[in-house]
Design a protein that fits this description.
It is a single chain. By secondary structure, this protein is of the alpha/beta class. It has helices at residues 21-32, 82-94, 117-120, 136-148, 170-184, 216-228, 263-272, 324-338; strands spanning 12-16, 39-44, 52-55, 58-61, 63-64, 75-78, 98-101, 130-132, 154-163, 236-242, 248-257, 276-278, 299-306, 313-321. The chain folds into 2 domains: 12-134 and 327-338, Rossmann fold (3-Layer(aba) Sandwich); 138-322, 2-Layer Sandwich (Dihydrodipicolinate Reductase, domain 2), CATH 3.30.360. The protein contains 8 helices and 14 strands. A hairpin with a 2-residue loop joins strand 3 (52-55) and strand 4.
Length: 340
Amino acid sequence: MSWTKPMSPRPVVAVAGATGAVGREMLLTLEQRGFPAARVLPLASSRSAGTRVPFAGGELVVEEMTADSFAGVDIALFSAGASVSKAFREAVVSAGCVMIDNSSAFRMDDDVPLVVPEVNADALADHAGVIANPNCSTIQMVVVLDALERIAPLKRVVVSTYQAASGAGQAAMDELYQQTGAFLEGQELVPAAFVHRIAFNCIPQIDVFLDDGSTKEEWKMIAETRKIMDRPALPVQATCVRVPVLRCHSEALALEFDAPISVEDAAAVLGAAEGVTMMDDPAEALYPMPGLLEGTDDVYVGRLRRDDSVPHGLALWIVADQLRKGAALNAVQIAEALLP
């Protein structure tokens, strides 16, 4: 059953997981975009209750999240982990609140739309109280894929990711800082947030391994791309790698189309696409780099060129801030799309 409760033009917004890296970015994004919230309520576990988080030039006091926290709340932005989202789903929905969930808990559920507003905002019409934010690496890719499909249908997608520590949370970012200093001082490195050391290293494993030898992160990119783009049979191959970068994910894409597509046409379409910025001037060594794009909102595209290894092929490089478009911004954009 689709959601029937009307949305207030000035909704009360809760941020669940407000003390985490994504939760803090959600608060910042709400502030920066001038979201018309009547009130913003930061929620977290009992351990974080009483913590103060910055918002709109002041501070908000974090409250402990309980089943009663959502009375009078219109929209709840969740970034507290899949188990927490599952535990609180009924409390949120029964309070008449819409959950926009950043975890993997509900992404592949048939009754939960998986939304990137630039691509499939129309899917929001069918939500039943829960809307899923896709995986960060999927979000930035489908923004580009959807724009290019306006020229020609995709035949195959091959993606290799270079994913920042932020994708594994604040503790992982802290570990990258700590290990970098320890490595330079010749100290022993003891991994905790990652399966191997992250400083001066690349780890070709994100999430657990599956029976076919792929990782769950790679499976997410494949399954979520197909659902968002409504292409259930689209061939997608992903290899996901964690790299010693703080917060921007990079991806190398090799795309094959069903019909001819020129570099010039692709550049024109991408340059005009919502949420995309072209950064592509080889003569000036201009291309997207994660170290220079922290805190930005767009998906940046460069190294656009023909791929002559397949018929109708293109290769390109994309970068986006994992905490912004890959998480907080996309969730806030969904909330904006729900406003009357």
